[in-house]
Design goal:
The chain is an alpha/beta fold. Helices cover 46% and strands 9% of the residues. The longest helix is centred in the C-terminal third of the chain and has 27 residues.
Length: 388
């Protein structure tokens, strides 16, 4: 029986805020005691993770004194050295403190916008010091409850100005760092700007240094909007913009649940893993999820192990799907190409267009062809159910 044990080459990571989540929700107080960053690093090492990511406030309290900050960083570095864990990604909490109640980069108050830039630059310095190569931006408060409060074009311009500023800061400091933007349609704001990965890709194209900026799609955030996450990740991959990814699970149309990866929709998780593995995605597989509120810390460990184990099981299933002769036979048949259309297709030319306009197509015959997708999908289900 396959062990499905995580290895460093799998690049499985968790945030301090994930396994460190205390079980608190909007309707109930914490069900687990708070753990220190050092304790969380050792917990992640115990379950076999490769890396740990952090918000600035996860690691260092927002009101910490310089001496407290120095001690926390020293202890955190020692924990990393003792366990061998790495820090591939860092991010800034621009949503928790009351100062960000109306956003950070899109706030109507210029003092808030300036403070947000200061907060990010300070943590970029720390992230780079700890080894991070990717810096994620999630605009959790960058939105509105009433559109009477902000002009969306002005807000987009403010976001663009902030990202351009921070790109220049990274270049000025000569850091080896790239940015990844994370979309979400709503929650905690009524509506959040740049609500999907597609929105983010469009926004990135308007920046001064688009080559420095990619996306960090999250399963739950796209499923909240009823979207096909695999399609959005494929678009990011095709654009060369998948700089990071957040793996979890989510029922469609619900609040942000952050469930264990593969917990809700195994078929969607399967096609996502298959997409990443088939395209040799080389970045972190970051689990931005939380254990159930019912769990103690042994349950949290089971949650973390479950995220990684499910990914590895689905990776094996994807390899089996790719090797299945009947599946590949169906795909070969539906993608069959006798070359007769080559003279019309490919790069445009005037002659090709003229010839194509004259081509006669037998529409009824073409439309009558069955594609056997029912069989193809059933075979996929049987692989997932372990009977094939």
């Amino acid at each position: 029986m396959t062990e499905y044990l995580p290895k460093p080459e799998h690049k499985f990571t968790f945030g301090l805020w994930t396994v460190g989540n205390t079980g608190r929700d909007p309707f109930g107080e914490p069900t687990r005691a708070k753990k220190s960053p050092v304790e969380i690093v050792h917990l992640l090492a115990e379950v076999g993770a490769w890396g740990v990511n952090f918000h600035d406030d996860d690691l260092i309290p927002i009101n910490a004194t310089p001496s407290e900050r120095a001690t926390i960083i020293k202890d955190f570095k020692k924990a990393l050295a003792d366990t061998g864990l790495v820090v591939p990604m860092a991010t800034t909490n621009l949503f928790g403190d009351p100062i960000f109640k109306d956003g950070a980069f899109t706030s109507n108050d210029p003092k808030v916008r300036a403070y947000a830039l200061q907060k990010v630059m300070t943590n970029i310095d720390l992230g780079v010091e700890l080894g991070a190569k990717v810096y994620v931006f999630w605009g959790g408060r960058e939105g509105t409850e009433t559109d009477a409060s902000k002009d969306p074009i002005t807000s987009t311009k403010r976001m663009r100005e902030a990202m351009n500023y921070l790109c220049e800061y990274v270049k000025d400091q000569k850091y080896d760092l790239k940015f990844a933007l994370e979309a979400k349609p709503n929650e905690p704001r009524g509506d959040i700007y740049n609500a999907t990965t597609g929105h983010m890709l469009g926004f990135i194209a308007t920046l001064d240094h688009p080559e420095m900026v990619g996306v960090n799609p999250e399963v739950a955030h796209e499923h909240m909007a009823g979207l096909n996450f695999t399609h959005n990740v494929a678009q990011a991959l095709d654009a060369g913009k998948l700089f990071h990814i957040d793996l979890n699970d989510q029922s469609f149309g619900r609040f942000d649940q952050d469930y264990r990866f593969g917990m809700v929709n195994q078929k969607a998780a399967f096609f996502l893993v298959k997409l990443l593995e088939d395209n040799k995605y080389d970045g972190s597989r970051h689990f931005d999820a939380h254990a159930y509120r019912t769990e103690d810390y042994e349950g949290v460990k089971n949650f973390a192990r479950g995220c990684m184990r499910t990914y590895l099981i689905l990776k094996e299933k994807a390899a089996r799907w790719n090797a299945d002769k009947e599946i590949q036979g169906i795909l070969a048949e539906v993608n069959a190409d006798d070359g007769s259309m080559n003279k019309f297709m490919g790069k445009y030319s005037t002659d090709k267009a003229k010839a194509l306009k004259q081509q006669v197509f037998d529409r009824p015959a073409i439309a009558a062809r069955g594609l056997d997708y029912e069989r193809l999908d059933q075979l996929t289900v049987e692989i997932l159910l372990g009977v094939r």
